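Bug #77: duplicate submission created two jobs. Keeping one. Sequence:
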Amino acid sequence: MGHIQNISLNGELQLNTKLTKIANELSAHFDAEIYFCEIKGKRWSFVAGSGDTVYGSHRFQLNEKWGIISDHELTQDSDNQLIINMIRGILSD
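Kept job's structure:
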């Protein structure tokens, strides 16, 4: 997942653009639609993703402010955990 690391380190990209590019990479990796959402209480508000229309019932909270919605459950293996930790780092900046 070197592409995700390259995207995350690109200081010229705005956060929304980074998240869209990362969502596209994750969509290919997980074979799922991926959407980044800002969490506001119980509401998950779309910010960026692999499509224009959010659909999916699987939610994965990254931290208290950010989460991912997907149309498939994301597997929790060691490689995917590294990806999730990298994304958490981007969102905590």
